[in-house]
Design a protein that fits this description.
The model has no long low-confidence stretch (mean pLDDT 88). The longest helix is centred in the middle third of the chain and has 30 residues. It is built from two helices and no strands. Helix content is 63%, strand content 0%. It is rod-shaped, with a radius of gyration of 21 Å.
Length: 67
């Protein structure tokens, strides 16, 4: 399922979006914006993954032979 999102942006920002689409980097403004949102979400996941790894290093556990 998808939803329509609308927003206002300065004209120069829209021109930059359009330039990127015209250069063939994306097929549409929508594709470009979805890519930006995915990048933001991936960064959040990466931060969480790093935090989880750090926390796991601090945990004390039993050697595998003892399990």
């Amino acid at each position: 399922m998808s939803s329509v999102v609308s927003f206002k942006a300065p004209e120069d920002m829209i021109e930059d979006l359009d330039k990127s689409v015209e250069e063939g980097n994306f097929t549409s403004r929508g594709e470009l914006l979805r890519s930006l949102v995915r990048n933001i979400e991936n960064k959040k996941l990466s931060k969480k993954a790093r935090k989880d790894i750090e926390e796991s290093r601090d945990q004390e556990g039993k050697p595998l032979d003892d399990l």
